[in-house]
Amino acid sequence: MTVLVTGGAGYIGSHMVLALAEAGESVVVIDNLSTGFSAFVPNEVPLFIGDAGDENLVDGVISQHGVDSIIHFAGSIVVPESVRDPLLYYQNNTMTTRSLLNAAVKRGVSRFIFSSTAAVYGNPDQVPVPETAPTRPTSPYGSSKLMAEIMLHDTAAAHDLNYAVLRYFNVAGADPQGRIGLATVGATHLMKIAMEVATGQRAKIDVYGTDYPTQDGTAIRDFIHVCDLVQAHRAALAYLRAGGPSVTLNCGYGRGYSVLETIEAVRRVSGRAIPVQTASRRPGDIMSMVADTSRLRAVLDWTPAYDNLDTIAAHALAWEHKLFLERHSSGEQRASA
Ligand SMILES: NC(=O)c1ccc[n+]([C@@H]2O[C@H](COP(=O)([O-])OP(=O)(O)OC[C@H]3O[C@@H](n4cnc5c(N)ncnc54)[C@H](O)[C@@H]3O)[C@@H](O)[C@H]2O)c1
Questions:
Q1: For ligand 1, what atom is nearest to the CA of residue 33?
Q2: 258 lines ligand 1 (CB under 6 A)
Q3: N or C: which end of the chain has fewer CB within 10 A?
Q4: pLDDT, tens only, 72-118
């Protein structure tokens, strides 16, 4: 009963691997280290440096380690990059998933958990957004993930495989013990940029769009702590192991915070001023994206532990301080770890 985690050296995947290893699960990782860090994978967990779409590699790992469940995080995640280079995203998100699924089906892997995204909804008609809302992605990133969802659905209908598609909203925070966190160079996440301002690595944060019909004019997002998200994956794994049918679930807390409220939380927690520069809306930006979490809470045995914006910000800040000191003391980026 081994769990294969693809992308297990990345931000969310590494928190997953740590949680599985700490729970005594047998776990193995495939990661090509394109944005991940080998140092994020615990020493006792086998790490195969390679492509999750390399069917020979995957086949060997499944048979060698007795893999019966796959949690698939590996992928490319930057929305504007997907607009500039859509084929990269259809390759790395859609085709990689196709190859991984092909190897999984051939070897009889019976459970598959897929990292999807709220971006599959595009501009929602209704907020909070239920899983039954129309899927109309506004970026190649969202489309590449939706295509993977469709493949997974069809594959599960034809083979002995059950899946959980987890559509993440905005993932933030870090391991409360400060061991791992978001370290991607040039990450574009709002909370991450605010942390870089709070730690003196940036002078200001740009806020795009201050004229939305929201309480302070800025866009609304639903943040979920990375460790609560990981616990949702563990609950999804337990659900599938217990014979639960395939399911698609939103992963958020179901609570929206505006961009300015989020920046204010970082200011409160850090005690540092966060200079803001306002700019006009960017094409494709979504006004309000908040999860309807009723299905998640009904289907899975999941109780979030960190549903508090200040707690999320505090964990992210502690990690950012550590990362900043490490990068400065070594004089090089952690990417070389
Ligand atoms: N971070 C978020 O807010 C968010 C929101 C919605 C969905 N997601 C999804 O969650 C997943 C993980 O995201 P993350 O934030 O941890 O990003 P990340 O970039 O930190 O992690 C991705 C990991 O996958 C690896 N990888 C990429 N392509 C690969 C390939 N072809 N073969 C093997 N390894 C490969 C990278 O090296 C990295 O370690 C992604 O699929 C992403 O689309 C993330």
A1: 37
A2: no
A3: N
A4: 999 999 998 999 999 999 999 999 999 999 999 999 999 999 999 99
Which residues, in sequence order, are CB contacts of 10 under 8 Å at separation 6+? 31, 35, 36, 40, 73, 74, 184
CATH of the domain at 266: 3.90.25.10
Together in a domain, 310 and 240: no
Residues 212 and 275 in one domain: yes
Phi-psi region of 21 (alpha: psi -120 to 50; beta: other; left: phi over 0): alpha
pLDDT in tens, 233-282: 999 999 999 999 999 999 999 999 999 999 999 999 999 999 999 999 98
Domain identity same for 194 and 241: no
Here the tokens at position 285 are 């930006």
Specify whether 170 is located in the same domain as 136.
Answer: yes
Residue nearest atom 43 of ligand 1, based on CA coordinates: 77
Ligand 1 atom closest to the Cα of residue 12 is 16
* Domain containing residue 198: 190-219+255-288+306-336
- The reply to whether ligand 1 has any atom less than 6 angstroms from the CB of 252 is no
